[in-house]
């Protein structure tokens, strides 16, 4: 039932429209894309369109010629469509819903999509252990552009401290999920059975009757989940927490920066130092001193990267997520 509940739930939260055609643009060997693509469409009774192009011009052409009306994309593909000069608003005029998932989506990227294509993109959050989407934005709800959305029907989201104690709204802790305790969806959802041949990791992830995600976040006053980043990617600089996503968001407001990634470099004195890798906007050459000054306007001094590298592209995995460990060699690590 975990394979089909997200599609069933969507029937009420996002009712299908006549002739709906849902596009999937990445490999269906990735579990979440299979569930949120063809299986999702099957359960909704709509048409699934499998797209074999991920270059921006080819993807836009496929969306147009195949009549795709809604699609789920990773931030990388969204960025490419927004930035490519040969992709125009009319190319995606038939696209009424676009959902971004699989990685952190900066509010600036959502705004740039809206400015170019005229539709407000929705965002979501999920993980393979779930094994699907768990949180989704609501159409027309823009109160908090940094949030990933509200928990879907079968689940409840909690934020807990290191001892597993629930934290109040606004306080950052580990994001966890459990089955909804009341209503028609009570007890329907179950997490994964476990990691293959990794009993200790399984016990850690499922301790206390919760699915522990390993992600840091908090709930806002409306009950939306705001994800701050991975626990193992949190930078501890001189005893102070630095959330990479916060620094990346500020960097993306610089007019010369198209993409950014922030990591911590080991340091004998401070534990870690904050550094950043940026991809420039086409035709631009970001100046490190200018980037530092830009960050200092909105960030505490200890959060401002001490070093900036400009690269042509960021290393990513099959889901389009940046792989932080692959950035370390760029700094000699």
TrEMBL record:
GO biological process: fatty acid metabolic process
Every AMP-binding enzyme C-terminal domain range: 246-321
All copies of domain AMP-dependent synthetase/ligase, residue ranges: 25-180
UniProt GO molecular function: medium-chain fatty acid-CoA ligase activity
SUPFAM superfamilies tied to this protein: Acetyl-CoA synthetase-like (SSF56801)
Keywords: Ligase
Pfam families for this protein: AMP-binding, AMP-binding_C
InterPro entries documented for this protein: AMP-bd_C, AMP-bd_C_sf, AMP-dep_synth/lig_dom, ANL_N_sf
Family under the similarity heading: Belongs to the ATP-dependent AMP-binding enzyme family.
Protein name: AMP-dependent synthetase/ligase domain-containing protein
Taxonomic source organism: marine metagenome
Record lineage: unclassified sequences, metagenomes, ecological metagenomes
